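wait is this the right file?? whatever heres the structure
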C-alpha cells in the first residue's frame, strides 16, 4: 500500500474518532446541562414576569397621575422650550462643528489655492 494512502487512512480514522468523541460529549454532557439551565431560566422568568408587570403598571399610573400637576405649573412647557432650543442649536451648528464656519471654509480654500500655486 502506498504511503500516501496510509496517511490518508490514518487522517480519516483520526477525524472520525475525534468527531465521535465530540458528539458523545455533546450528547452526554453539554446538551443535558444546557437543557437544565434553560428550564431554570424559564421558571425564573415565570416568577419574575408578574412582579415586573405590576411594577411597570404602578409606575405608569403614578406618572400619569402626577403629569397634570407638573403640566399646570409650566415645567413641561419650559422643558419643551429648552429641548427645542437645544435641538435647533444642534441642527443649525451641527455641520459647522464638522466642517467649520463659512470663514473657515473660505480660508481653507485660499490656503489650498496658494499651496497649489507654489507647487508649480
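ok assuming it is, sequence goes like this
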Amino acid at each position: 500500500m502506498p504511503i500516501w494512502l496510509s496517511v490518508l487512512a490514518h487522517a480519516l480514522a483520526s477525524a472520525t474518532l475525534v468527531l465521535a468523541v465530540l458528539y458523545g460529549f455533546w450528547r452526554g454532557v453539554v446538551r443535558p446541562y444546557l437543557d437544565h439551565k434553560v428550564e431554570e431560566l424559564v421558571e425564573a422568568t415565570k416568577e419574575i414576569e408578574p412582579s415586573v408587570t405590576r411594577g411597570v403598571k404602578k409606575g405608569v399610573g403614578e406618572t400619569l397621575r402626577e403629569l397634570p400637576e407638573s403640566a399646570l405649573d409650566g415645567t413641561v412647557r419650559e422643558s419643551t422650550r429648552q429641548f427645542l432650543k437645544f435641538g435647533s442649536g444642534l441642527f443649525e451648528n451641527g455641520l459647522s462643528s464638522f466642517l467649520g464656519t463659512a470663514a473657515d471654509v473660505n480660508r481653507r480654500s485660499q490656503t489650498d489655492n496658494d499651496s497649489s500655486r507654489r507647487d508649480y
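The two ends are 76 Å apart (CA to CA). so i think its the right one actually
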